[in-house]
Design goal:
Structural class: mainly beta
CATH topology: Jelly Rolls
CATH architecture: Sandwich
Number of strands: 10
Low-confidence stretches: none
CATH class: Mainly Beta
Mean pLDDT: 90
Largest sheet: 5 strands, antiparallel
């Protein structure tokens, strides 16, 4: 099957929510995705409109053998290599530009071996954007994938 729809499953892990000033210890944690039956996983982090110029939102990938026992993912288990979480973050900017640091989707891929994976988002902007997280599971063991 050479089409995308029969080779992926998309899961909503976090509906649009404001992160606010949470700090690393707090933040918002997405639902956990179960990778069983799939070789690949990419997260789409959608950032909405933001006016605060100094605020940032940073994702931290979490992994584990059980859904309730997740720890931070090592840098080498993420793509793009050499700073995947930073590349998927919403940076501060004196000027906010759609598609760059507001109203933009950013990708981060997980290439580790753990079955359960999630995302924690933490922010530094009290007037930050809403954020949503989706997981795209790909390279299934069984094709076609279920449509729901």
């Amino acid at each position: 099957m050479h089409d995308l729809i029969n080779n992926i499953v998309v899961r909503r892990l976090l509906s649009s929510v404001a992160i606010g000033v949470s700090g690393v210890a707090n933040g918002k944690t997405s639902a956990v995705v179960d990778k069983q039956g799939f070789d690949g996983l990419t997260f789409v982090i959608g950032y909405g409109s933001v006016t605060a110029t100094g605020g940032t939102i940073t994702p931290v990938l979490l992994e584990g053998d059980a859904p309730g026992a997740l720890t931070s993912v090592a840098d080498w288990e993420m793509l793009p290599q050499g700073g995947a979480e930073l590349a998927a973050s919403l940076p501060a900017g004196a000027v906010r530009t759609s598609g760059v640091n507001k109203n933009v989707d950013k990708l981060i891929s997980y290439k580790g071996s753990k079955r359960y994976v999630g995302v924690k988002l933490w922010g530094t902007a009290s007037a930050g954007p809403t954020v949503d997280v989706r997981a795209i599971l790909f390279n299934p063991e069984v094709r076609p994938t279920p449509s729901a």
